[in-house]
Design brief:
Elements lengths: L1 H22 L17 E4 L5 E4 L12 E6 L7 E5 L13 E12 L12 E8 L5 E8 L7 E12 L5 E8 L5 E13 L12
Antiparallel strand pairs: 1-4, 2-3, 3-10, 4-9, 5-8, 5-10, 6-7, 6-9
Length: about 200
């Protein structure tokens, strides 16, 4: 009889434990390994337009993937990829400094001679302070003088005079931009070094 009640107790406890676990938030992102998306990046206002691509990648050693955006018509907002906050991620520790930006990009069938920023394609780098106020911003645009450009390298820089608490890179097609663009090897680094972009090579 005693063993019967022990069995009932264990059974009830097991059900309660499983129910409690199922009600909890999953702390492991992509624990089922089903999401086909690059780590440390999220889609920005897009779903099917943004893919983690293998059809094109920058001509660098051992490169296998890139960030791809395809847009056939105007959209309500920009479409693209946005990095995690890299200011203090893992071993990063962003400081007030001069930041260098770099990336590679390839275009196919994109709109040419954009009349304004809404029709442009590029990378937006943003810096925010501890109160979430914008303290630095730089757009680095890709070449849209022709509809098709092979992989090209782009770079620029910005002095950020306040210690940033948030640093993002956004790979964007403006809401009026169309065509296909691939981004790879997205960089953002300070001098002296204090941070970089995690998984900027899309690998």
């Amino acid at each position: 009889m005693k063993s019967y009640w022990c069995f009932v107790f264990v059974l009830v406890f097991s059900f309660a434990f499983i129910a409690n676990l199922s009600a909890q938030t999953n702390l492991v992102i992509n624990g089922d390994i089903e999401m086909i998306e690059p780590g440390f990046w999220q889609k920005l206002n897009g779903t099917t337009e943004c893919t983690w691509a293998t059809d094109e990648k920058a001509a660098t050693f051992n490169s296998r993937r890139s960030f791809k955006i395809e847009k056939s018509a105007a959209s309500a907002d920009v479409i693209g990829w946005k990095s995690d906050n890299n200011a203090n991620k893992l071993w990063n520790n962003a400081v007030a400094a001069t930041y260098s930006f770099s990336f590679s990009a390839k275009t196919s069938g994109v709109n040419t001679s954009p009349a304004n920023d809404d029709a442009r394609i590029g990378v937006r780098y943003t810096f925010y302070d501890e109160s979430a106020s914008l303290i630095g911003e730089k757009y680095v645009w890709v070449d849209q003088s022709t509809a098709d450009t092979d992989w090209s390298d782009y770079s620029d820089g910005l002095l950020v005079s306040t210690v940033p608490e948030e640093v993002y890179a956004e790979l964007i097609m403006g809401k009026d931009a169309t065509g296909t663009v691939w981004f790879d090897n997205v960089g953002c680094g300070s001098d002296p070094w204090s941070m970089g972009i995690f998984n900027g090579d899309a690998e």
